[in-house]
Fold this sequence. Notes:
Blueprint: E1 8-9, E2 15-16, H1 24-33, H2 47-59, H3 70-77
Antiparallel strand pairs: 1-2
Amino acid sequence: MSLINTPGAVPGGGQSTxxxxxxxxxxxxxxxxxxxxxxxxxGKMGSRTRRAIEEWxxxxxxxxxxxxxxxxxxRLQS
Length: 78
């Protein structure tokens, strides 16, 4: 299980959180839909997005790193 912690540019706008991961905008949208407030859905991996990831991680008993893994992304979507 690898941690995804370095955003990169994605063609068409936004940022990707890494291989096998969504754009930051997609991640923010799913977090928001699940009740975890990432702030504005703007495609930027800011402090509010990291805090929303940490809150979700706490809710599922995962270490609160603020960095989503591929496995966690799959779980968040289910």
